[in-house]
Q: What sequence folds into this?
């Protein structure tokens, strides 16, 4: 297909199998909703265990023992706490993360022009993903704060039902700093995470299609392309988990009653970098690797079913 716009000029929006018009971006947004909402909500039990391991490591020593403690003390509902805000929050986040990434990537490529776009492709991936995540986190923040509060509050001290929890967060917003009190630590966790997620995904896909599957990408079956998508997403997710874990620990610790009113710097220095970087990391690597692999797979499966083609390539 021609890379030229109808005007005859080179245009990044015409590089793929279909033109990137408003319908294309809307479908990418819907793909992002499915990719992030379903996967994050589906691993709520892992998330509950991880948050409690970060906030109360003496009681919740590991993933399996943490889940066992939650089940023993709170039953099945204990491990699914925060499902509602997780599903809604990450659906909104996915919509902006994936949809706006496609928008910003095209915009930045057109600003740079054909030659510079090809030369500095990784810089465009990083800039596009960082820009998208700024907006994605604004949508996510109130729901993420609610989720963490539900998951880390001792049983019976905070409502676990979605609507009641939102109402309580709003009522106590002076002390909980709701709705945007966690936005800065969320940005500090999610922007590096998303930059790594998109950069390493695009890079690993490029390596696969350059060195392993050396024929034109379009010549391979959709199952092969989606296999490349999942493998690239999983590997990118492992890198992301390591990069963003210290900031993730701070977000969880902010929800702890003992840390009420403390600054991010105070929480970080009291806990120590080694603990922030390692507590719950194994669980998070497993969680984020699987999560990121499936997110990219769901997203690209949806794109492929809509005739939009899979993401990335040479």
A:
């Amino acid at each position: 297909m021609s890379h030229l716009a109808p005007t005859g000029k080179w245009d990044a929006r015409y590089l793929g199998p279909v033109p990137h018009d408003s319908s294309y971006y809307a479908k990418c947004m819907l793909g992002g909703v499915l990719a992030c909402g379903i996967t994050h909500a589906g691993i709520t039990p892992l998330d509950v265990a991880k948050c409690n391991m970060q906030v109360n490591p003496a009681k919740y020593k590991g993933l399996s023992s943490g889940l066992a403690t939650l089940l023993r003390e709170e039953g099945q509902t204990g491990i699914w706490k925060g499902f509602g805000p997780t599903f809604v929050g990450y659906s909104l986040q996915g919509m902006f993360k994936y949809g706006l990434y496609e928008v910003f990537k095209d915009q930045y490529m057109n600003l740079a022009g054909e030659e510079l776009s090809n030369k500095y492709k990784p810089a465009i991936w990083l800039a596009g993903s960082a820009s998208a995540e700024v907006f994605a986190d604004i949508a996510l923040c109130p729901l993420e704060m609610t989720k963490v509060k539900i998951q880390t509050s001792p049983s019976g001290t905070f409502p676990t039902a979605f609507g009641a929890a939102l109402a309580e967060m709003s009522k106590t917003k002076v002390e909980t700093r709701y709705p945007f009190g966690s936005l800065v630590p969320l940005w500090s966790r999610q922007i590096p995470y998303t930059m790594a997620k998109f950069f390493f995904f695009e890079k690993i896909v490029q390596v696969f299609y350059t060195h392993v599957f050396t024929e034109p990408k379009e010549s391979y079956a959709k199952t092969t392309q989606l296999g490349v998508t999942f493998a690239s997403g999983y590997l990118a997710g492992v890198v992301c988990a390591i990069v963003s874990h210290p900031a993730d620990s701070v977000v969880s610790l902010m929800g702890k009653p003992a840390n009420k009113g403390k600054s991010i710097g105070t929480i970080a220095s009291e806990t120590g970098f080694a603990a922030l970087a390692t507590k719950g990391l194994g669980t998070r690597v497993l969680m984020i690797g699987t999560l990121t692999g499936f997110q990219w797979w769901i997203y690209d499966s949806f794109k492929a079913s809509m005739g939009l083609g899979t993401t990335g390539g040479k």
Q: What stands out?
A: The chain has 14 helices and no strands. The first helix runs from residue 22 to 42. The CA atoms of residues 89 and 140 lie 5 Å apart. The chain has a mean pLDDT of 89.
